[in-house]
Amino acid sequence: MRRILIVGAGQAGLQLGLSLQSAGYDVTVMSSRTPEEIRAGRIMSTQVMFSPSLQLERDRGLNFWDDKAPKVVGQRSTLAVPPGAGEKAFTFVGRWDEPAQSVDQRVKMSTWLELFESRGGRVVYHGVMTSDLAGLAELYDLTIIAAGKGELVELFDRDAAKSPYETPQRQLSCIYLHGGKPMPEYPEPHVRITMVPGVGELIYMPGLTHTGAADIVLWEAVPGGPWDIWQDKPDPQAHLERSLGLMREYMPWEHDLFTEAEPTDARCTLFGGFPPVVREPVGELPGGAIVLGMGDVVVTNDPCTGQGSNNAAHCAAIYEEAIRAHGDKPFDREWMQRTFDAYWAYAKNPTEYTNMILSGPPEHVQKVLATAAENPKVAYRFVLGSAVPADFAEWIMDPADTEAYLASVG
């Protein structure tokens, strides 16, 4: 029986650990926090899992929230200009073929961790340093680093050719709320993205937290701009009041939906900023042992396009397949690189699209957005790309392809 060590207990690490456990592998997971600490801790992310990613969970029997989480049917995109005028330039809605879902990772990861243990899995609750890992890796056939923050990430060199940014392109601030009202003209649960050029994006997601249905509000602030005002990390009530002030000025149609909202709990806020980055997949430990990076360790996207948890789910599925197909052969550097390359074939499209959006939508993408407001076919295809990012490569990444597609739909 092959022995696998997974360091990190997020979407990628736990999905892979549970999948390999079900396939008969001897899997050890290292987590810096217990399920109780995760459940009682601060929110860890914003997340919308699209249908293909949810299917990966369903195929593995990990879909415990299908009848509990809101069924998110589509995405509304709104351009608000000029900045501060509080007016819409245009807005449109596209529906997905199958609904998306957002589950608070405090709920999901604590549940999955308990499931892994209940099935006889070995969990070591301890923070890991590089010096610790050197001795541990010798005990396993394969060591995978799935902890996207902390010292271990430094084992993996930045790939400059795939990483156009060296500094954060957005400063992030998130809050989970109860009591938001549905949009009167479109009451079904849907993601809402409001773009204010040169200022940032406000992203709303209906989700599920440990106290029930939640309204997730994410501010994506251009550094140095008028929304970049979260350095003091306000408490939840102050965060809500500040959010309402920004909404009142920049998007009053959103403000009116949150006047009766309340924070979900005392740890329902999150702040930060990070540069999007792609790293080399193989890290070398003191002594020469090698480890494989996965998920956010090797591909970190800004959350403005909602791809992080989806990338992680696909990474776990791709790594699982590669491990199972490898049999008893050694997990050498060549295999690690080949396995990452298979993941990059998926992650390349959402990564390049996200980086393009961060730079400010180029002219041809602005044309797509404006056309989508008038043409339901274009609105549908634009929203489809969130769930199936490979489709973006067919028509929106290159201006000539965009022109050809728009011409084909009149």
Parts with pLDDT < 50 across at least 5 consecutive residues: none
Percent strand equals: 15-25%
Residues in helices, as a percent range = 25-40%
Oligomer: single chain
**Tally of helical segments:** 13
CATH C-level class of the largest domain: Alpha Beta
Tell me how many strands there are.
Answer: 16
Look up the CATH topology of the largest domain: FAD/NAD(P)-binding domain
Q: Could you please describe the fold and organization of this structure?
A:
The protein is α/β, with parallel strands linked by helices and 410 residues long. The protein has three domains: 3-62 and 103-165 and 275-357, 3-Layer(bba) Sandwich (FAD/NAD(P)-binding domain); 72-100 and 171-272, D-Amino Acid Oxidase, Chain A, domain 2; 361-408, no CATH class. The protein contains 13 helices and 16 strands. Strands 3, 4, 7, 8, 9, 10, 11 and 12 form an eight-stranded mixed sheet that branches. The chain has a six-stranded mixed sheet with strand order 5-2-1-6-15-14. β3 and β4 form a beta hairpin. The longest helix has 26 residues, at 333-358. The protein is globular, with a radius of gyration of 21 Å.
Short overview:
This protein is an alpha/beta fold and 410 residues long.
Question: What are the key terms here?
Answer:
eight-stranded mixed β-sheet, FAD/NAD(P)-binding domain, alpha/beta, 3 domains, 410 residues, D-Amino Acid Oxidase, Chain A, domain 2, 16 strands
